[in-house]
Amino acid sequence: MDNKLVVGFITYNDLTAKYLPDFCDSLKKQSRSDFKVIAVDHSDQAENDNILFLRKNYPEIEIDRPGKNLGFAAGFNRMIRRAIDSGAEYFLALNPDMILDKDFTAAMVKAAEADKKIGAVAPKILKWDFANYIRTDIIDSCGLSITREHRFSDIKQGEKDNGGQKGREVFGFTGAAVIFRIEALKDIAYDKAGGREFFDESMFMYKEDCDLSYRLRLAGWKIVFEPKAVIYHDRTASPKGESNLKIAFNRRNKSRPVKSWSFLNQWILILKYRQLPFSFRVKLATAWYQLKSVVFASIFETYLLKEFRELWKIRTKIAHKREQLKIRVGMEEIERFMT
């Protein structure tokens, strides 16, 4: 088998076990099947439904069980290191709550190979109604956008897919499905004891994809959207647009742990990139939005304020990572994606 491409996904208790039959079947039926598959299992019990299913039905999938839930960033970093050790050129990160179109992996690799400066490719992700087993035409993501306030969102999420999208550069990718050029990941990795760190492991879950998108962009790597690579995701699509209504809808549907991780990781992002020489309007917009977020938390979600204690504990680690940023482009290159 040619290990030019390595595919990786994370399993966790019953949250992923129910999806594996469809997910693995769609992987097996890919028109391009010359890839290696790795799974990191974060389940509580060693003999869980995820492990049992994979061992019985897909023994060719390599299973890595670290013994505890390391989080999204650390879990995928383990797989990326194994992909590097195997000599792979590309690493495809996937959530298992998805169904791949039969030409998905072929389209992703083809898009990545189009330009050696492409560091990552974001596919067209459509909503999969798992409960009713329907592949819908509602968009989940066409890549990540960024605003001057340093808010991040999925492009066209909640809109109906008209099939008219064209491949283009976007600011970033969503971690649900993305292919990386291994060379790009090695280029922007943080140095740490025990091995390189690709996704920022200070971010247990949420916004680690925003951060890695940022670092690839700063280092001069391109991130492109490829509409021919189609995949279906079982995630509730949000109302379209960037209105206050959408923000309120999204917050209402998030659990406390998710809100806490998101709040903390947003501040990690701000502290990591705030000293970059952005234009005055970007600095002002970012500062104003962060101020509003603190005021909101102080009034409506006071439990979030404890995340500042965690932020203080890791301030040295954040500063060290800020010093390791590869900055090869001017800030106008980042600002051209800001809305």
TrEMBL record:
Entry keyword annotation includes Magnesium: no
Keywords: Glycosyltransferase, Transferase
Pfam families named among the record's database cross-references: Glycos_transf_2
GO molecular function, one term: glycosyltransferase activity
UniProt-listed InterPro entries: Glyco_trans_2-like, Nucleotide-diphossugar_trans
Lineage top rank: taxon: Bacteria
The Glycosyltransferase 2-like domain, residue ranges: 10-187
Protein family according to the UniProt entry: Belongs to the glycosyltransferase 2 family.
Name under which the protein is recorded: Glycosyltransferase 2-like domain-containing protein
